[in-house]
């Protein structure tokens, strides 16, 4: 019997895919992690700063829908697609510190170019994350919930990593500036591209992605069960990316007031976002044992409570840090479960279309809250600005409770609601 190559094992591939996601996703919040430095270097206000993340969100939506429309993951080798996306994303991100810098960044043309480059980065990330999910599914049938949870956990650490890079480089002589973080994030994404190209393999269960039925994109909202699951997802997304964007800034301001070091503030920001990595895996295991909707409702209730109180704790940095880590753990833990829920409830032939609607709607909604938080904060402070995000979990919980009362909910997690 022919012995398998060491790369042709599901656990090895899961580890490699997790590493690729972790490294490549460092691009997403690379600018947000140094927002305060960019505000000074480029004379940016709160709204202009928020656009640095909003442009990535919009790019991701455009990239995801374009990839689905062209069916790229079936036309191109998924490992090569992921490698190319990580490579181009890294190079585009690298143009900001190397090609724009402090002087050109202060001009209208320079800032517009930065937003374009950030948007293109988002487009490229749409070729990394969904493709990684497809490759994980090609290796894992049994235990897929755990595998997907681990991948989302890796994405979470990757999203947090720019804050860690900032903490590490903050006191480096002569190079502890905003540009260093963006350069290092790009280098991590280049490593991700190399791993994807050289080591990642598609599994034996690789299937063609369901084609998008564009006429179904509007009709999906007429399916009551799917609509309620999607409203749960929208409630989750209403909160998630705004929390990831502005939560670390709240910690920085709180630590400054207490005269804590900037390095400790950056590490706290990293811990806040990265806390979700373990929670994603735990939520996947809990969903299989106690029920998917129940697990999601607990996550939404926890994160919503944290959103309500966190901004009011700015003068209590230690207590704030504890609450923020709990918030970071709960705010993303339900993400994979909400996507799984929609795939279980919709017509099996239209899973691709249903997930495209969910992803596009969710990321478009993040644009609203990412832009809203700094505007409200500048007028009435952090307390109200972040408490507004609790509206998302409230809507999500109500929708999922109503979903649990429907007979269709028995399709979820093999009847484990």
TrEMBL record:
Species of provenance: Pirellula staleyi (strain ATCC 27377 / DSM 6068 / ICPB 4128) (Pirella staleyi)
Any one GO CC term of the record: plasma membrane
Protein's name in the database: Major facilitator superfamily MFS_1
Transmembrane helix listed as a keyword: yes
Keywords: Membrane, Transmembrane, Transmembrane helix
Entry-linked InterPro entries: MFS (IPR011701), MFS_dom (IPR020846), MFS_trans_sf (IPR036259)
Annotated GO MF terms: transmembrane transporter activity
Transmembrane segments: 12-35, 47-69, 81-100, 112-133, 145-165, 177-200, 229-246, 266-287, 294-314, 320-342, 354-376, 382-401
Pfam families named in the record: MFS_1
Residue ranges of domain Major facilitator superfamily (MFS) profile in the record: 10-408
